[in-house]
Amino acid sequence: MTDTMKKVVAIDGPTGAGKSTIAKLVAKKLGFNYLDTGALYRAIALALRNNGVNPEDSAERLMDALRKTEVSYCDGKVFLQGIDVSEDIRSKEIDHYSSVFSTRRIVRDFLLNIQRNAALVHDIVVEGRDTTTVVFPKAWKKIYLDASLDERAKRRYLQYNEKGLHINIEESIRDILERDKRDSNRDIAPLKRADDAFAVDSSNLSIEQVQENILEFIRTRP
Length: 222
Hints:
Distance between the termini: 22 Å
Helix content: 40-55%
Mean pLDDT: 93
Structural class: alpha/beta
Shape: globular
Number of domains: 1
CATH class: Alpha Beta
Order of helices and strands: EHEHHEEEHHEHEHHEH
Strand content: 15-25%
Strand order of the largest sheet: 2-6-1-7-8
CATH architecture: 3-Layer(aba) Sandwich
Number of helices: 9
CATH superfamily: P-loop containing nucleotide triphosphate hydrolases
Oligomer: single chain
Number of strands: 8
């Protein structure tokens, strides 16, 4: 990383913890830009699937497809080859493939500088799975946002159903457990709480309470 990096508020945590919602609100309050790293991984998954790439394919096969791929994130939207794919990447299928492809080192390496470059020009609030440990280990402020399995499954269930993607709560729990296992047990950049990250459990807190806890930490901690 470079010494010219701007202020970075990095938020990590498991799926369904509320990272995207909170990161957007905190970014707005601080006047920072917002970066959704999950959207970048989803866009890569969409590009790879569009190119007929499977998760078990060789690194060479993935690299051939990635060389043709242009992905960017701007003003809350993610672009693939210059086309806004913000809605296309929110399907249950792409949710699955983004998690699977993210275990491949070649994919993580491809996106590493794209993520870091976002902090060269603007102060940012960034959320993901390894933003505090790998992407921005020297972030200005680090937060680890978590919630109980039941609460995260309920949120995911409501999120999908609001989009017309009907799953039951049992399916949501299975999806969360499967995602947690992949995220925490992968060899490359596993999800974990950074030693110097401020932990927030959002299980029994309102969005406003979570936001205020994080803003208080940012305001008062050196």
